[in-house]
Amino acid sequence: MKKKIRNFKILNINFGPQHPAAHGVLRILLELKGEIIKKIDPHIGLLHRGTEKLLENKTYIQGLPYFDRLDYVSMMVQEHGYCLSIEKIESTKIPLRAKIIRVIFSELTRLLNHLLSLTTHALDVGAMTPFLWGFEEREKIFSFYEKVSGARMHAAFFRPGGLAYDLPLNLILEIYIFCKQFSSRIDEIEEMLTLNRIWIQRLKNIGIISKKFSESWSLSGILLRGSGTCWDLRKADPYEIYNFLNFQIPTGLKGDCYERYLLRVEEMRQSLKIIIQCVNLIKTGPINTVNFKMKFKNQFFKYDMEKLILHFKRFSKGFLIKPGSTYIGIEAPKGEFGVYLKSVGENKPYRCKIRAPGFFHLQSLIPLSKNIFLSDLVTLIGTCDVVLGEIDR
User: Fold this and answer.
1) Structural domains in the chain plus CATH codes
2) Please, which residues have CB within 8 angstroms of residue 35's CB and are 6 or more apart in sequence?
3) What does the alpha-carbon distance between residue 6 and residue 194 come to, in Å, rounded to a whole number?
4) Which of 68, 269, 284, 301 is the most buried (most CB within 10 A)?
């Protein structure tokens, strides 16, 4: 008896932006043959706010809060790249205390990002409990944000030349206590997921990224290190005090979704190690670079009115930076976040171009998702860790 061969009809469907596993306003047009993906077309034009163009019409300080709203899961890290680019053009050196505080909050932000990435990915695959555990810990980190800036998310805490405010009393002790207990929370998540049979089946051998592919598609962060390339800007091109700190860069071998999960877990452990080192290093001192035009206590101005006028001008018209251009890349939680800044000596940038790591990761989905199951696309998007704010800026 002859076997009847089924002819599958090609089906075109929308994945997102309303799909709970689409992560934000990502829309993907899928071409399916049965449950097998034959072609995808990511659409990223649903959030576009024209950030790069807006920055050309804002003073340097007015432009800072826009960076909080790019990758709205890694807020202070985005500010960090922008501040470093301004400081590089001006050849500004900031005090050691400010550098240490910046590193502490950058690593706390890395924990924020990875907690959201891991727990929402687990939720997409079907595990709900890690999501509840992880968001409880994220609330504690948000409380640190609030104590230093007054805002839970969009802090605008890093400033060109240093920080907006110094740390409140006892916050360093609170951060230290948090770091000591947080490793046990990571253990709990690992106990539920790492050796879980369903989790392994859903992630292993899915979305394999080779070393050659990751380098040729300009991938960075976990997607690059998962394929075996040991590249982290905190080690390769150190900024702030990273060259004085002791930490490891975890790398993978196979480059599949399961390895990327393991690397994010290990990166959280390394971030805790960095924060504890910084807590032990921190000492009293200034948090901003010395600017004699703003040092009112030294009787630089004769009358209080002159101080008030300069203060008003600084906040209304902003400050000038010398002509020049620069590019600064930092190791954001998702990969290399870069800021190209061009100044012509005015109080606002002539050009500000942002390199978002998620943009490159999202375009790599096109070849990676060919001939995989529709259910595996959810896993692949989860380990790519895309946030549309920085992609569709």
Assistant:
1) 10-391 (1.10.645.10)
2) 373, 374, 375
3) 39
4) 68
